[in-house]
Amino acid sequence: MTFDLSATPLVTLEEGVLTLPISLDGKGNALDSDAVDQMGTALAALLAGDLEARAVLLIGLGKNFCAGGNVAGFASADDRSAHVRELADRLHAVIRQLDEVPVPVVAAVAGWAAGAGLSLALTADFSVAGPDTRLLAAYPGIGLSPDGGMSWNLPRAIGQNAARAFILGNEPMTGERGYALGMLSTFVEGDVREAARDLAVRLASGPGESYAAVKALLRASAESSLSDHLDAERDSISRLATSPDGIEGVDAFVAKRAPEFGRD
């Protein structure tokens, strides 16, 4: 690893998990610009191979995951349009990075996930919620429209009609209801952050090459015909059959032992 984490003091790397705060304690856990910038820097290093992480964990450092953008900052900007456009560009650069990283991304959706906070949760591969989780589109409440990919990811998660009703209706939703609809991947009765961390650590010890291939195939499926995608699946599984993780996984299965992935 050549990346110096001291350049991103909010970011931590432990047990193969790159933990990225998206909001800080105070100010209602609004999306924090410095946190977004540090997230982008760390993700760029991960994508460039300068930082070795096997899973990414998104968290809020206060009681909420993220209550959305800093609306007071919107109001005080000299040029509101330019200000909001710049913030959206910075957020969207991170959303693109999260979509591109080859490792699993987990979101610890504790407390409120509203506006851009919910958009980030929808970007994750795994979104862990609990009894205190509350979801809100938020944008219509301040006369704005979604950013962060909400209007792209949400219809794909719960369907066009349900997504339309959720965003336009702008009514809070419990984490349990969001899980039942398919908006969130995981619901736990215990501590959301602890459960999300445990999941990220477990994924970090898993078959990284397999995860990367799965994410690449899923990403490509949106624009592929079935015939072309079948060819891509064939090429991928045959390549992985002679990869370190593929060899270890198959050999461990035959030997009836637990696989040890991540070995060269």
Specify the overall morphology. globular
CATH fold category name of the largest domain: 2-enoyl-CoA Hydratase, Chain A, domain 1
Uncertain runs: none
Binned, the helix content reads: 40-55%
List the total number of helices.
Answer: 11
* Major sheet strand order: 1-2-3-4-6-9
Percent strand equals 5-15%
The largest sheet is: 6 strands, mixed
SSE order, one letter for each helix or strand: EEHEHHEEHEEHHEHEHHHH
Q: Oligomeric form of this entry?
A: single chain
Keywords: Fatty acid metabolism, Lipid metabolism
Protein name: Enoyl-CoA hydratase/isomerase family protein
Function: Could possibly oxidize fatty acids using specific components.
Catalytic activity: a (3S)-3-hydroxyacyl-CoA = a (2E)-enoyl-CoA + H2O; a 4-saturated-(3S)-3-hydroxyacyl-CoA = a (3E)-enoyl-CoA + H2O
Question: What can you see in these coordinates?
Answer:
Pfam families: ECH_1 (PF00378). Keywords: Fatty acid metabolism, Lipid metabolism. Helix content is 50%, strand content 13%. The chain has 264 residues and is α/β, with parallel strands linked by helices. Helix 1 links the parallel strand 2 and strand 3 (55-60). Helix 1 runs parallel beside helix 3, helix 4 (116-123) crosses helix 5 and helix 9 (208-221) packs antiparallel against helix 10. The longest helix is centred in the middle third of the chain and has 21 residues, at 80-100. The model has no long low-confidence stretch (mean pLDDT 95).
